[in-house]
Please model this.
Amino acid sequence: MTAETLRHGPLASYAADLASFGATEMAFVPQWSLRVDPSVCPFPLPTDPNTWAAEGDRELLWLGPDEWLLVGGSLGRVASALAGVGVHHSLFDVSGNRAVLDLSGKDRREHLSTGCGLDLDTRSWLPGMCAQTLLARIPVLLQERGDATRVFVRSSFAGYLVTWLARSRPAI
Amino acid sequence: MSRRLPDGGSWIDRSRPVTFRFDDVEYRAFEGDTLASGLLANDIVGGFRSPIIGRPRGVYSAGIEEPNAFVEISEPWFDPIVAATTVEVVDGLVAWSRPGIGRIREGTSEPRVEHRHVHVELLVVGSGHDGLVEAETAAARGDRVLLVEQAPRLSGSGTSLRTEGVTYLTRATALGLYDDGYAVVHERAMPVERLWHVRAGRVVLATGGTERPIVFADDDRPGVMLAAAADGYLHRFGVRYGERVVVFTAGTPAYSVATTFRDAGAEVTLVDARPTPAVKGEIDARGALVGWTVVGTEGDDRLRAVHLEGPGRERRTVEADALLVSGGWNPNIALWRAIGGGVRFDRERACFVPDGGGPPWLSVVGAAAGEVRGDSSYWFVPADDYSRHFVDLQRDQTIADIAGALDAGLTSVEHVKRATYIGTAIDQGRISGALTAEIVNHLLGADPGAQGPTSARPPAMPVPYAVLAGPYRGELLDPVRTTPIHEWHVEHGALFENVGQWRRPWYFPRDGEDLDRAVARECLTVRSSVGVLDASTLGKIEVVGPDAGTFLDRMYTNRMSNLKVGHIRYGLMLGLDGMVADDGVAMRVADDRFFVTTTTSGAAMVLDRFEEWLQTEWPELRVYCTSVTEQWADVAIAGPKARAVLSAAGTDIDLEPGAFAFMTFRDGTIAGVPARVARVSFTGELSFEVMVAGWHARHVWEAVIAAGEPFGITPYGTETMHVLRAEKGFVIVGQDTDGTVTPHDLGMDWIVNPSKGDFVGRRSLSRSDTRRPDRKQLVGLLPEDPQTLLPEGAQLVFEDAGEIPIVTVGHVTSSYRSASLGRTFAFALLAGGHDRTGSTVFAPLPEGAIAATVTEPVFYDPEGTRRDG
Model:
């Protein structure tokens, strides 16, 4: 057995709950936390607050003026680019830090609005946006992908959040 | 009698009959009826009782201002108490009269509750003409508009037309307005109830007005109703409330009600209290008794006759089955007033109207803005005896009660409210509030409007707790955090305790063990062999950058910058006040990289504090902090067999003491997965803390359990962890400290290094108060009876049976039964405790004082001989 086959995701036993509201767990998605001054970073980063950009097989989510979450892809090129220019930065694997679920149902905006105070209306919450907010009183990171809204939730809260979402789906 | 006319009723659908039960009798009504209109259509004019003195009462209004007609709904949903005027009849509805007090019943089904957040450019409260115009105008501009109406139907003109871009919510009451256009709305879409959190760019209040009555003797009898309400029952439901009707008013609007009832075939006597009608040529004033008043009513359970008095004090009695009262109109401005909107008294309309002062995003239109039809300033009929002049029907309070409060010396309407409880019932004084203020003004000889109604506060209408709670109830009451090993703990019978939002294993009972026996077994197993603890909840922060060491030197009391790579150091963090705020260890991963742990409950606070200092005080320091609390699970193996177990679980790390010293760490693999292993100890025993990615935690935990089986390994929880650490004299920040404890108070002078330069809290440690010798200091306590357990929190005194009151000198912070020591022991914070070793203190308790000897706070292996196994 390899280390990969020995993994046990935080939502492994929540498949039925997830399916009940049209959600899918994206298990073991690679994630890195990057902190760096974007003006000296050797590769481009989205600097508009609460936006994300895709670059190859990697997505870069703005979390703060000097903080991004890198999702997907492999780390090598990023790490070597940063090391190559020697800028002060921090880069950590946080793949286990957050569980990832995609909500793709048509009613997902209404559903998320049962527990999230952000304006998730189609005219305000657009593909390419991301935001750190509260959902069911839990800190989450939302990423709008157009065909789905991706929810990053710290692993310890994942079970509660999925149970909460399964019970709070609106009747209309 | 009150009955349904053959025609009319804009709210009802006569093709859809329904049946309902009220107090165990079945009645017929139509879809669209309210329970109140359904009762009145069946001539149920009384049927209710007042809550305090039990007088017969009937439906008095047609809306949320209702003070009399309260019911419990038991089918098809449950509501312990609600106004019959606000309940829509559905087929099979079962209702019971309730005198103003509801009762929660076991086993009833509750409505489903949803919470919703919505953002709009405009929120309109109220669906009258003015509200609809505002909504339609904004929607035409492209704004998102939400319009909420508390009634089941929109009330303005063109009610069947709905404008695109406007979301219409009926049966929806705005409970309160808050800063920056935030509003909370309760929607009753039975059997679903919704609480809407609305964020609006602008809010327009089109909340209309509410009619008020005139107060006279026996004004509460069934058969007395607000005139506009009776008018509404006729128009909306085709229900004519009476056949022989007296309309009592002092203003113009009720004249049209008289006309309407005449046109509907009723015999009407119009009584106008004014000496002369204020307006010339008033519509249809035929036969109006001008200058007359109502001075009393008759009838047992319903009105039979009305006593009138003329301008020359002549008396006349009119047989009547309905008395419709109109004393003027008040704008509905509770929401406006509650968020700071100003008001002034409008003498012409005899009511308070909005007058500036509200927030810039809020405006008021229409009747709510003061465009009410009222022109009456007549509040009550003078009499010698005011004991049956009811002002607040739901609190059974009369003018005599108000006069009594004034006689007692009260002069403020606010005080009168609290003395009489007027306005504090379910209807929240919608009818009685303005009346009470004017009666107080009159009795004090002040001008009308000298004092207004009492303060308005949200919620504007009672709201069930279940609606506010919404989905946050039962097991979803508060977010729950679990570790990656949680399901194993559940499967293996752990009992849990809440540590902040974390749910941590408390202990793992076997074979029916109770807490004491399980913890004794777990403790002895760790001390004699090996145990394993899920320590994944510890906070973890990566601190990275060329200045990381300098930064940590400023955050901790001791020096971290000289820590060698691969080594670990314990650290204490203070607040600016010099008090202990958190503790943990720092591991130096590289010259420019530390891995720092915090307490479970302090994790977020410590990261916030790091960021705050870096961003606001030391932006020149090149340091980044990243929370990795949930990236890493932590499996702590403790006991003399810990090395053997870890070795058996499989590792490429050399675990021998010579190769792997205490307070160092190694990176490698454990049970086939990448791990960082730290030799720290919170038990005093040989310990290895194995940190692995969260998704590998269950695998590693199970591998350790399997490897430990030959040694009788036990999983242990927080209780055993607490006992073991206390035996060794390790404090828990937040249990043995409470924000008033310095490192010196804990006897931890050794960890404070004032020579290394400045650190957070350093200056405060030199204040005279933090140097007082009689500060409460951490000590150990050994009860004289070794089986007696001191309660945690027990206060301490120096002398038993001293003078009362007696000065307490400290309290117990931790207290346990120790299987290793074969006795109980405790920690306490005790005044001047460091100099009191060997003396006796007492915990005075109701069942007698417990005597205990003061000791050093280390009970087990003080020489530290066991940490290498």
Chain B touches chain A through 50 residues (CB under 8 Å). The mean pLDDT of chain B is 94. The longest strand of chain B covers residues 112-125. The two ends of chain B are 95 Å apart (CA to CA).
